Amino acid sequence: MKTLLVTGGAGFIGANFVLQAVADGLRVVNLDMLTYAGNLDTLEPLADNDRHVFVQGDIGDRNLITRLLAEHKPSAVVNFAAESHVDRSIDGPAAFIHTNVVGTLGLLESTRDYWRELEGKAKDEFRFLHVSTDEVYGSLGAEGKFTETTPYAPNSPYSASKAASDHLVRAFHHTYGLPTLTTNCSNNYGPYQFPEKLIPLVIQKALAGESLPVYGDGMNIRDWLFVGDHCSAIRRVLDAGKVSETYNVGGNAERTNITVVKTICALLDAHHPLPDGRARESLITHVKDRPGHDRRYAIDSSKLQRELGWQPSQSFESGIKQTVEWYLTHQPWVQRVLDGSYRMERLGV
Ligand code: NAD
C-alpha cells in the first residue's frame, strides 16, 4: 500500500485531499501544526481509520520530519502546509516567512536526505510535490492568462513567501536532484473552507442577514476552482507529472468578486428567504480596498489538460451550488469554527 506524507492536511485543501486519498485506499501520514487554520473536526470521518495517522508538528522541525520519513517510508511528500490568508500576511508577514519559506526549506532538506538513502524503484518513484498558488505571477490586465512560463511578480507578503518556496523547490531539483513537482492553482472554494475566505464568509453572513463586505468596486477577478478538482489535479500530477515540471491548475471560471457574492445571494434567496423578505443583494457593502489588491488572476491549465489528461469535473455554477448546500447542511462544523470550540479540545481548555 502506498504511503504519502501530507503536510497541512488539517487545513482546507489538505484535508479534502487526505479524505479523498484515504477513501481511495492510500495510507496518509498527516503532519499539521494546527494553527488557527487547522481543524481536526474536518478529519473526524477518519477517526478510526488505520490508514490515517495524524501528527501535530511543524514542517520546519527537521528532527520530526526525519523521524516520520524513516518510520513510515512514504513514496511521496505532498506539501500543503502554509500560512495562506493574504489579509493576515499584510498584518503580520513574519509567520508567512517562518512557515512558507523557512519551513519549506526544512522539509526539503529532510526529504532530500531521506530520498538520497532510498534505493532502486523506491528511489526512482519517489516524488516531492509542492502545492502553490497562481498569486506568485502577480496581477493581470484585461487580457491574457498565467502560463507556466509567466515571470514571477508576487505582490503580497503571502504570494512573495509562496514564490520563495517555489524557487527553493526548483533549486532542490536542480542542485540536489530531488524529484520535485510543483502545482500553481487558482482560487479554491468548497467544503471545509475556513469562514474568513470570501465564499464561506459571504455564505455565513448572508444566511444571518448581515452586511456583506466587498473590497473596493468588487470588480477584482478570480479564476475559481472547486476544491475536489484541485485535489484530483494534484493526484494526477503525482501519478504522471514529469519530474521538475510545474503545472498550472484552474477551472476556467473567471468571475468578478461582486458576481460571486450576487450568485450566493440568489442561491440563498431562492430556498432560504430572509424573514423580512429583503433580497440579500441589498446587504452588499463596499469597503475600503485591500492594499495592493491584485486586479485579475486567470490561469491557463492547458498543459495539465493536454499532457496529463486532467479535466475539472465542476462548472462554477454547479460547484457554488454544492458549496452553498454543504454550508447549509454543515452548520455545526461552521459554528464550532466561529465560536472557537474547534480549537479548545486540542489546547486542553
Ligand atoms: P489553510 O490555511 O486552510 O491550511 C493550511 C494548513 O497548514 C493548516 O491546517 C495549518 O495548521 C497548517 N500549517 C500552517 N503552518 C504549518 C507549519 N509550520 N507546519 C505544519 N503545518 C502548518 O490553507 P489552504 O487554503 O488549504 O491551502 C493549502 C495550500 O494550497 C497552501 O500551500 C496554499 O498556498 C495553496 N493554495 C491555496 C489556494 C486557495 O485558494 N486556498 C489556492 C492555490 C494554492
From TrEMBL:
NAD(P)-binding domain sequence ranges: 5-323
GO BP term (any one): nucleotide-sugar metabolic process
Keyword Lyase: yes
Cofactor: NAD(+)
Alphabetized Pfam families for the sequence: GDP_Man_Dehyd
GO function term, MF aspect, one: dTDP-glucose 4,6-dehydratase activity
EC number in record: 4.2.1.46
Keywords for the protein's UniProt record, in alphabetical order: Lyase, NAD
InterPro entries with a match to the protein in the record: dTDP_Gluc_deHydtase, NAD(P)-bd_dom, NAD(P)-bd_dom_sf
Domain of life: Bacteria
Membrane among keywords: no
Catalyzed reaction equations: dTDP-alpha-D-glucose = dTDP-4-dehydro-6-deoxy-alpha-D-glucose + H2O
Family: Belongs to the NAD(P)-dependent epimerase/dehydratase family. dTDP-glucose dehydratase subfamily.
Protein's recorded name: dTDP-glucose 4,6-dehydratase
Native species: Dyella dinghuensis
